[in-house]
Design goal:
The chain has a domain at 24-73. By secondary structure, it is an alpha+beta fold. The protein has a two-stranded antiparallel ribbon with strand order 1-2. α2 crosses α3. The chain has helices at 28-40, 45-52, 56-66, and strands at residues 12-15, 18-21. The N and C termini lie far apart (61 Å).
Length: 88
């Protein structure tokens, strides 16, 4: 028996008998906007989090990670895995 969808979250998915929140993935442009907006001080952390549909803590973590990086040099998501090495 499937329960009705909760009203508190718009992005929910039913799995294994309960409702789970679907996590949004940010792209590079959104992270650039986040850092630029936070640097300018035009919006609060809570406002940015609501706009991007992420948690305020994640906004703080991303800003801490990219606060000292120039906007044009932000690479997100960073390349994962083992570094590529060339064979001789």
């Amino acid at each position: 028996m499937r329960r009705s969808k909760p009203d508190n979250h718009k992005n929910m998915r039913f799995k294994k008998g309960r409702w789970l929140k679907v996590v949004n993935k940010l792209d590079e442009v959104q992270v650039m906007w986040l850092v630029r907006t936070k640097r300018n001080g035009t919006k609060s952390t809570k406002d940015i989090a609501e706009h991007l549909d992420i948690s305020p803590r994640w906004v703080q973590k991303l800003y801490a990670r990219y606060s000292d990086v120039e906007i044009s040099k932000i690479k997100y998501p960073q390349k994962m895995g083992r570094p590529v090495t060339t064979l001789p």
